Amino acid sequence: MLTESGTTRLFTSDAPLTMSNGATLGPVDVAWERYGELAPDRSNVVFICHALTGDAHAAGLREGDTKPGWWDSIIGPGKPIDTDRFHVICANLLGGCRGTTGPASVDPATGESYGLTFPEIHVADYVNVHRALMKEFGIERLAAVVGGSMGGMQALHWGLRHPEELRSIAVIAASSRLTAQNIAFSAVARAAIMRDPGFHDGRYLELGDQPSMGLSIARMMAHITYLSEEGMAEKFGRRFQEGDAKHGFGVDFAVESYLEYQGRTFLNRFDALTYLYLTRSMDYFDPFADADAAHMMAELQIPALVVSFDSDWRFDTGHSRRIVRELEQARVPVSFREISCPWGHDSFLLSDPDYHATVRAFLQGVQYV
Amino acid sequence: MLTESGTTRLFTSDAPLTMSNGATLGPVDVAWERYGELAPDRSNVVFICHALTGDAHAAGLREGDTKPGWWDSIIGPGKPIDTDRFHVICANLLGGCRGTTGPASVDPATGESYGLTFPEIHVADYVNVHRALMKEFGIERLAAVVGGSMGGMQALHWGLRHPEELRSIAVIAASSRLTAQNIAFSAVARAAIMRDPGFHDGRYLELGDQPSMGLSIARMMAHITYLSEEGMAEKFGRRFQEGDAKHGFGVDFAVESYLEYQGRTFLNRFDALTYLYLTRSMDYFDPFADADAAHMMAELQIPALVVSFDSDWRFDTGHSRRIVRELEQARVPVSFREISCPWGHDSFLLSDPDYHATVRAFLQGVQYV
User: Fold this and answer.
1) Where, by residue number, does substrate bind (chains A, B) (predicted)?
2) Could A238 and B191 be called an inter-chain contact, meaning their C-beta atoms sit closer than 8 Å?
3) Which of A70, A80, B307, B333 has CA 20 to 30 A from A211's CA?
4) Contact A55/B at CB under 8 A
5) B191 contacts in A (CB within 8 Å)?
6) Mean pLDDT over all residues of chain A?
7) Given pLDDT bands bounded at 50, 70 and 90, which one contains residue B62?
């Protein structure tokens, strides 16, 4: 199903990206994948924004892989984001560690990785890089921008600030403004990473080290917030990993084994600096602080789908309701659905029938020709 | 108000404590405090069981202290646990690090701290040491055993297993069986401690080191679970610590400053090994796994007060309802109250009027003479 993949240099040292905080950055390379046929008039493009730990590999099984892309459940031939109809593009976001330039990349000015000298990233910067990629591909207007969790924040920002570049947005399990508790979880995760002696003030790559402990602790804690309490009870309960209690302080309960595995495998595919930069960008995201934020989207009557899950306690339905209120107040056409699904925040990655039917119907209704 | 405080040796190397897992331990010293007058017939004693990070200093202001004991809000002259009427005793529990023998104590067999050679502790062991202390004090029957959170587990265990030694129990914001999510949070906290290079496989005391990073991360994460999301929003919201956003990865939001402070100050008063042992004892606590657990308490018709707080998501009301169901099924007289209070699990330490009135009324009704 994968049509094409690649890495494209969008900005150079001579023609750098200007970031939200005024800093410039170049070169900027972006890793991307494309699925399905592009219509001759290029009108059938759906852009997928990924979440905190995602990457460009959203769908399909690549040669040598044992698992398909992270959103293969919803993207593919005949699936809700239907590659028989849409040309689907996903890119690793700015600051990422999966092919796109990020703090672990080499700074040409020093010959060493950026580390903490990488400029602060805002959600606007992810979107500006995605926009530059679309320009590079000659795509003037997207049929839809779709994202879950932090991906939903990007879809929302894109819709609010650049509505002329798209025809619809789908904002799933996302937030327009983190709560104190949301920030608190990320703050503890960052503290675990930065206080790890392996962090070396962000210079661990040159030193051949890694804040493995901090990053795995961050990931384990995050996984607790991705699953609902009831989902965890259903999945693990108080079961022991090996039949009987072993006692001691090692892995004994099945839920401990799950977290330990998640923490360990994360180290092979993710970078600690990326974790810092991306979580921090969410803390500061607050598009409706500008009371007039949605007026351009309203003028163009760009429809938005907003989806939440009733068991999601990372970004509970209150977060989605707030987005809906802000958009409706500005007269943006909004379709809102709270899906009943027991799997917490992770539900957006799963195949709940109501959820999938909702996304399918919304995209079928998008006027893009 | 403090009547007396001290440390008592309850077990020795020659006459050791036999623990739940069969291990023996001696000497065992216990730090305690007493408030209010003991009635001549010793019938007016209320024993207070403390929670994970508490100690024997439950009430009153000791010389040189700037803050009163951890439950001073509820214990004192004229307060719900009324020292004009009751003789109140609190002791640091077994495994603690506040005067009572624990894994940081010196093992006489080696001359070094126990570390991870300290035997596994069950809730039954805390209670057995408290019972030995009461025996030492010549107190045959308690008017009440009262505890919040892990203290409530001890009160429950004492009531179920040794109902002849008491006349009532009050089990506040507690659980009779942790959920997968509860265990998960503790598992991540323990991983942070044990993976800290300063942990040295539990031998950090001899080496003059400490797993400071892991212990502070554990504490910060725990604090998120002690406050409700709404309580955190009310207390901190998205306020910045210094008026304006500073950006970067340091403390910027007020909630970050709060967590950082909690994590840092905890290091001065708590031991990482104690954190491991005490959290693990909660994971395995499951008294009603024995279907007949409450029959002795029912036979003696020992009344139980069970209190939960509607905003508590560490041990939500479902945990308390389960305790109530189990006790009622066995025909134990139970009074259950869910208190509406926005401050999450921490509510049990605060002065909500309904909560205090409930505890006061229950203790006033206890027949102890």
Assistant:
1) 219, 346
2) no
3) A70
4) no
5) 216-217, 220, 259-260, 263
6) 97
7) confident
Strand partners, A91: A32
Distance in angstroms (rounded) separating the CA atoms of residues B27 and B237 = 49
pLDDT at residue number A368? 59
Any CB–CB contact under 8 A between B1 and chain A? no
- Angle of helix B150-161 relative to helix B123-136, nearest 10 degrees, comes to 70
Domains parsed from chain A with CATH numbers: 2-178+285-364 (3.40.50.1820), 182-280 (1.10.1740.110)
How far B315 CA lies from chain A's nearest CA (Å)?
Answer: 11
What pLDDT score was predicted for residue B63? 85
Quickly tell me which residue has 């002690």 as its tokens.
B226
Q: How many residues does chain A have?
A: 369
Distance (Å, whole) CA A254 – CA A31: 36
Mutate to test the interface with B, among A114, A185, A213 (most CBs of B within 10 A): A213
Tokens of A307: 């989806």
Mean pLDDT of B168-184: 98
Beta bridge partners of A24: A18
Residue with tokens 């005949």: A78
Is A346 part of any known ligand binding site?
yes
> How many A×B Cβ pairs under 8 Å?
141
* Rounded Cα gap, residues A59 and A36, in angstroms: 11
The per-residue pLDDT for range A185-226, each reduced to its tens digit, is 999 999 999 999 999 999 999 999 999 999 999 999 999 999
One-letter amino acid of B121? I
**Chain A CB within 8 Å of residue B276 CB:** yes
Confidence of residue B3 (pLDDT cuts 50, 70, 90): confident
d(CA B27, CA B310): 42
Percent above pLDDT 70 for chain B: 99
The distance of B88 to chain A (nearest Cα, Å) reads: 34
Tokens at A355, concatenated? 């959820």
Task: Encode pLDDT of A66-106 as tens digits.
Answer: 899 999 999 999 999 999 999 999 999 999 999 999 999 99
Q: Is A256 on the interface with B (CB under 8 A)?
A: yes
Q: Pick the catalytic residue from A125, A271, A312, A316.
A: A312
At residue A369, does pLDDT exceed 60? Answer: no
Give A217's contacts in chain B (Cβ within 8 Å).
188, 191-192, 195, 217
Q: How far apart are CA A239 and CA B145, in angstroms?
A: 31
Share of chain A above pLDDT 90, in %: 96
3-state secondary structure of A11: strand
B137: number of Cβ within 10 Å? 16
Among chain A residues, CA nearest to B234: A180
Q: Rounded to an integer, what distance in angstroms lies between the CA atom of residue A189 and that of residue A174?
A: 19
**CB count in 10 Å sphere of residue A24:** 12
Give residue for tokens 């049990």: B348
Q: Which amino acid is at B328?
A: E
DSSP label of A16: P
| Count of C-beta atoms within a 10 Å radius of residue A160 | 27
Distance CA B168, CA B184 (A): 32
Cβ-nearest to A220 among B179, B191, B248? B191
* Of B183, B194, B217, Cβ closest to residue A256: B183
Residue B219 marked ligand-binding? yes
Helix, strand, or coil here: B179?
coil
CB B268 within 8 A of CB B133: no
* Residues forming beta bridges with residue B113, ordered by sequence position: B106
**Token pair of A221 as six digits:** 């804690």
Tell the residue number behind the tokens 């587990």, with chain if given. B153
Nearest residue to A308 via CA among A360, A267, A256, A343: A343
